[in-house]
Amino acid sequence: MRAKIPATIVTGFLGAGKTTLIRQMLAQADGRRIALIINEFGDLGVDGEILKGCGDIACADEDVVELSNGCICCTVAEDFVPTMEKLLAREAAPDHIVIETSGLALPQPLVQAFNWPEIRTRVTVDGVVTVVDGKALAEGRFAHAPEAVAAQRAADAALDHETPLSELFEDQIACADMIVVNKTDLLAAAEAEALAARLKEDAREGVQVVRTAMGALPIGVLLGQGAGAEDDIEARGAVHHHHDHDDDDEDDHDHHHEHGHDEFESFVVTRAEIADPAAFAAQVAEVIRTHDILRLKGFAAVAGKPMRLTLQAVGPRVDSYFDRPLRPGEVREARLVVIGQAGLDRAAIGAALAA
């Protein structure tokens, strides 16, 4: 049976930086063919044009689909599901689908749409990424320009929900698998850390909160979460069942100087072969929780076993399976790549994984 195509939903208010985040991701696609569904209002199509102009083979013009008939969560049956069916019917199917919602879209109805029979067997929600404007949020606002949000709401005749911004924000946080606190270059380090901690407290258990500037997030952190969000929609319960919409735009913090991924780091931990895969998975999960690690992946030899064990961890969720026989002469050890925000205690993490 063919594996399901992973889809990532990127949500957040106008100006939070969703389009910038996606551009950064496309620049790292490394041969992956990524299809984009962009939800905009009206005929301007700013985000679509920005992304079509990325100049990367990962996002050919035909792979960028714009939905401008209203907020995507209000037009699931009319627009979103038929669009997904067309993408899936292509001879060259995408490797990954990224959906940028309008700023006023509720993510829950969109996640629920992945249970429609037409697409359920072909696609899975890899993760819901909620982008927040760190500077605005630290100042007590949900968006950089609330008046622009209100204007977009008034301009959308198709909107079938009216939701206070505070409730919409809570919905976006409740549904998230990852919360990206953007524009942290405009905050003091302690302020950004406190904001991230507050958001983590408000989110579901296991939700990752990362801090960045200009949407500079490693593609290995953003994609590959494996959340299967459509299967636990009840845990992502909306605060309300009517909603409110807002178009999304290119991050208004629109500088074009280079930003690397200095906010993130990765390193390799090597240890002796393991004795018990289940016990080691529990050990890995505890190390991840203690040190707030984003991702951990790698391979391990298991004492007395001829097969190599593969481990993949996203937050506290650890998956493992035997993938192939160990080759003659192959060292019987474990090699694990650890990925997280800059400042990880490498020595403590290495010692904990080797214990």
Descriptive key words:
355 residues; Hypothetical Protein Yjia, Chain: A,domain 2; alpha/beta; single chain; Rossmann fold; seven-stranded parallel β-sheet
Report the helical percentage: 25-40%
Q: What structural category characterises the helix and strand content?
A: alpha/beta
Q: Which CATH class of the largest domain is shown?
A: Alpha Beta
Could you say which overall geometry the principal axes of the C-alpha atoms support?
globular
End-to-end CA span:
39 Å
- The tally of structural domains comes to 2
> By CATH's scheme, which homologous superfamily of the largest domain applies?
P-loop containing nucleotide triphosphate hydrolases
Largest sheet report: 7 strands, parallel
- List the secondary-structure elements in sequence, H or E: EHEHEHEHHEHHHEHEHEHEEEEH
